[in-house]
Amino acid sequence: MLVVSSYATLGSFSWDQDNDKIKIYISTEDADQEKVDAVFKPVSVDLKLYDINGKNYQFSIPKLNKEISPDQCELVVKPTKVIATLVKASKGNWLDLHFKEDKGCKKVNLWPWRAFTVCSFSQILTKTKIRWLELWI
Length: 137
What we know:
With about 140 residues, the chain is mainly β. The protein has one helix at about 120-135; strands at about 10, 15, 20-25, 35-40, 45-50, 55-60, 75-80, 80-85, 105-110, 115-120. The protein folds into 2 domains: about 10-85, Immunoglobulin-like; about 105-135, no CATH class.
């Protein structure tokens, strides 16, 4: 592992998932296995790319949405992209890679017999539509 004092942040990436894994795709140039370092932890991922066109880059998610199994995670380095495969600790769909606090969420009584926890006005509208469908079915 190289020790470098400064990194440019890699903010551009794409990701995909299935029930068991998440794949993070980072486009790059001139990458090879010796120029990439990955640290997988139960709730974080940190990738460092060294000497890519004379610059060092870092991609980091300090707090993932849910836990991963670090020992099963993999890194594939190709000349034009880096693919980090995160293995989920528990199966299921993630709505986002980053953990988000439920700040501002409130319990809302839309009807006397039904309450929901909502974090935004759009969630209230969505839950209202679901409730109306339940009433009409």
